[in-house]
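Milestone M4 deliverable, item 7.
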Amino acid sequence: MSAASRAPQCSTSRIRSRRDALTTAAGAAAAALLLSACTSGGTSGGGDTNFVMGKDGISTVEQGKRDAVPDLSGKTVAGGQLDLKSYRGKVVVLNVWGSWCSPCRAEAPNFQKVSTDLKDRGVQFVGINTLDTSNDNALAFEKQQGVTYPSLSDPKGKLLLRFKKGTLSLQAIPSTLVIDREGKIAARSLAALSEEKLRKMIDPVLAEK
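Output delivered:
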């Protein structure tokens, strides 16, 4: 008997059983990730965050009642390193996006245009690319949309879970925060933004002294 004939063989039913088990495990892992977003620091509901919702869907927090943005640092989509604290003293627009997200594609040109217009006025745009299965997809998105500002890579959504409960959610993509010069969250949108609404979010924070 040859070595090949003596080698253990997997039956079709066994292969199918293992495949089904792996599929179930992957589904459970994905469900656990979404559940963690719904029950910990990444939720959009609950939590005492002092947001006041405007008629336009933009939520704001008055000075003196704002929460600090959590520590956000790590590898960027382009392969560099970024620490959000390095932009302290500037108004930061933090946009959460994914290449798989149609509203993200719709709003990307607005963000790039406003980023270019306000760069010399001390406004820094930063993205958080989340839940992308491949960094290549994120790079292709940036190239196609002409996005030139940096984005942190967050494939498992871990950065979003650092935010205080009631601030951001994995289930609300895209979402945008405007962070004041002291590193505190001043405004929020949990939907795609037109250029007009984006500027409306930024202008009051930029005017603060």
